[in-house]
């Protein structure tokens, strides 16, 4: 498949299938009251999960150093009725700062199961995830996240649209929160 497919598009949020097991999401964020580049750090990642406690059951972020954290994220068992396992992510996230861009590069940790995960929970088969925050102006940012699942992952078409809807819910809350911050 060479052509991108828009799976979900709403209110400036686009979730696109680039090719098998490769997805991207895009949206802009703007707030004239803050310098947006100053809030793009690991606390933003924690905010994403804190604003979505209906989707995430447990979140643990452990600082490795100023540019790296280990994150353990347990999703609520959203698809239990469909017979699907509860999922978690266990990832190393590295922050890279360039001129007018802050990137978060996430890679799954596979050599151990994190503490406190239900015994029947399965790790999300994410190969890597790269989230780039392009600083367009001091008050405006373009968010671009690319997710690559492992080859063994086979996402059925109905699930792709559900993933888009869940991501929209997650990131629209974060976008709304940031756009409404008043300092």
Describe the SSE topology.
Layout: E1 5-10, E2 13-19, E3 22-30, H1 42-50, E4 56-65, E5 68-75, E6 87-98, E7 101-108, E8 122-123, E9 126-137, E10 140-149, H2 157-179
Parallel strand pairs: 6-8
Antiparallel strand pairs: 1-2, 2-3, 3-10, 4-5, 5-6, 6-7, 7-9, 9-10
Please tell me about this protein's structure:
The chain has 183 residues and is of the alpha+beta class. It has a domain at 40-143: 2-Layer Sandwich (Alpha-D-Glucose-1,6-Bisphosphate, Chain A, domain 4), CATH 3.30.530.20. It is built from 2 helices and 10 strands. It has helices at residues 42-50, 157-179, and strands spanning 5-10, 13-19, 22-30, 56-65, 68-75, 87-98, 101-108, 122-123, 126-137, 140-149. Strands 1, 2, 3, 4, 5, 6, 7, 8, 9 and 10 form a 10-stranded mixed sheet that branches. The radius of gyration is 16 Å and the shape is globular. The mean pLDDT is 90.
